[in-house]
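Lecture notes, part 5. Sequence design as translation. It can be helpful to think of inverse folding as translation between two languages: the language of shapes and the language of residues. The source text, in structure tokens, appears below.
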């Protein structure tokens, strides 16, 4: 009988991507099929996130919930991967002794062997090493039935922002060789993919070997991917302001396939806090990037991430953040209250801002961004958008959900055969964060 695999994913798109790879590798080696019911599964995997304390705690409560399944199904194996696994390693198997396998983001390709070793020995297996970029050489070719696909171009992060665990969970920045990335792109295009998202923690730090002893930077890679005729639309995430080079900004002028949306996390609008975070830029530099981008792409939509209540953040610092939001005119943002992460430098800083003050600041920031987002959505009313149809609508199975170039979801009436294709859709209504539209034409 076909064995079943259940995966629960926490955290960012890197984890979403890795979860797909886990499913790919277990399908290829063990013929496992995915299920969305944990009680049906022979293997349960948690792909974890440790970016904030809440995310990390959630894993242990979810683990406790699947534990009883082991009693009714003795062969069931439970694995923990991702960033919590990478940080805690053996400690996970100690705290939750019913966990069979602990693996990191860089060792997920070894899952079949780790699971087998556990079946053979009855002992928990832990492998959270950082074997460079070898995982990509051991993963089966990507397969997708949808019109869009992610391609990982680099792993890890070497920025060491003082609040962040990522460099410790994922290791230092490592870029995949240019030819490998382009091979992945080609394979996906052969399966009918039309939109590619280049993925990494800091994609614009990309520096991939070209095979002739030289390296390609991110600007070069974007142009190389855009050069494939079958690529209709190109995105990337996430990028860092420090490496937003003029070469990269210039690509916006020459490469219309590159979407008019950029997610460029700023974190704070106070130079004092940015320095304490070790972000490596000032607000003036950030605004200069945005100005130069808009010179190349007047309609570019900028979204961002914010951390509120970093240790030592005063009302004045927070005011500077609110000011920056107005100066830049962000159209959407993710924002969080600072969460101290053990082992990071910021966790040692004195922090006397009460939690209520921090959450009140977060609420003010979110209300303001929400207004800006509504305003930007209203401005899209009546426009005709080039939309990639992703799926049937979550709320209404009679409708389709598509994504605009500037990353908005639009719901509209259409037929399922349009999924995976582009369509021209007129925006007719704005309902909070979603847009409603009317099909103007299907694009071949
Ligand atoms: N590499 C990207 C983002 C990585 S993590 C960048 O540098 O921009 C995604 C977001 O989580 C960050 O942008 C930040 O806003 C938030 N984040 C990271 N560490 C955090 C912490 N300790 N507390 C609260 N938010 C955090
Ligand atoms: Fe974390 Fe900073 Fe790296 Fe982003 S750039 S992943 S916030 S250390
Ligand atoms: Fe979380 Fe790891 Fe991503 S900590 S945000 S899953 S890189």
């Amino acid at each position: 009988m076909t064995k079943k695999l259940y995966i629960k994913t926490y955290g960012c798109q890197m984890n979403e991507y890795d979860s797909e790879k886990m499913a790919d590798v277990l399908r290829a080696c063990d013929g496992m099929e995915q299920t969305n019911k944990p009680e049906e599964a022979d293997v349960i995997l948690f792909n974890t996130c440790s970016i904030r304390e809440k995310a990390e705690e959630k894993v242990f409560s979810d683990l406790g919930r699947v534990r009883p399944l082991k009693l009714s199904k003795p062969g069931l194996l439970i694995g923990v991967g991702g960033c919590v696994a990478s940080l805690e390693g053996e400690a996970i198997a100690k705290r939750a002794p019913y966990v069979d396998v602990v693996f990191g983001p860089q060792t997920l390709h070894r899952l079949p062997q780790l699971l087998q070793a556990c079946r053979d020995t009855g002992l928990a297996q832990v492998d959270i090493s950082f074997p460079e970029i070898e995982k990509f050489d051991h993963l089966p070719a990507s397969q997708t039935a949808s019109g869009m696909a992610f391609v990982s171009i680099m792993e890890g992060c070497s920025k060491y922002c003082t609040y962040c665990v990522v460099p410790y969970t994922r290791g230092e920045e490592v870029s995949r060789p240019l030819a490998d990335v382009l091979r992945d792109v080609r394979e996906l295009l052969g399966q009918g993919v039309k939109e590619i998202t280049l993925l990494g923690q800091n994609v614009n730090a990309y520096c991939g070997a070209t095979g002739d002893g030289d390296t390609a930077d991110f600007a070069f890679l974007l142009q190389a991917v855009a050069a494939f005729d079958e690529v209709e639309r190109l995105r990337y995430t996430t990028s860092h302001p420090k490496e937003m080079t003029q070469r990269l900004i210039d690509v916006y002028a020459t490469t219309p396939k590159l979407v008019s949306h950029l997610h460029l996390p700023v974190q704070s609008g106070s130079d004092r806090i940015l320095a304490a975070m070790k972000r490596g830029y000032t607000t003036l530099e950030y605004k200069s990037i945005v100005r130069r981008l808009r010179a190349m792409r007047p309609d570019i939509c900028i979204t961002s991430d914010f951390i509120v209540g970093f240790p030592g953040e005063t009302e004045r610092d927070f005011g500077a953040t609110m000011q920056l939001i107005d100066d830049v005119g962000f159209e959407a943002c993710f924002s969080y209250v600072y969460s101290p992460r053990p082992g990071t430098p910021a966790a040692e800083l004195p922090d006397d801002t009460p939690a209520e003050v921090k959450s009140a600041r977060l609420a003010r920031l979110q209300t303001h961004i929400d207004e800006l987002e509504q305003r930007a959505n209203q401005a899209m009313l009546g426009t005709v958008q080039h939309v990639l149809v992703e799926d049937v609508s979550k709320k209404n199975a009679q409708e389709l959900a598509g994504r605009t170039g500037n990353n908005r979801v639009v719901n509209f009436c259409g037929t399922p055969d349009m999924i995976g294709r582009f369509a021209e859709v007129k925006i007719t209504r704005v309902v909070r964060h979603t847009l409603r539209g009317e099909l103007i034409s299907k694009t071949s």
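The translated text above is only one of many valid answers, since several sequences can fold into similar shapes. The mean pLDDT is 94.
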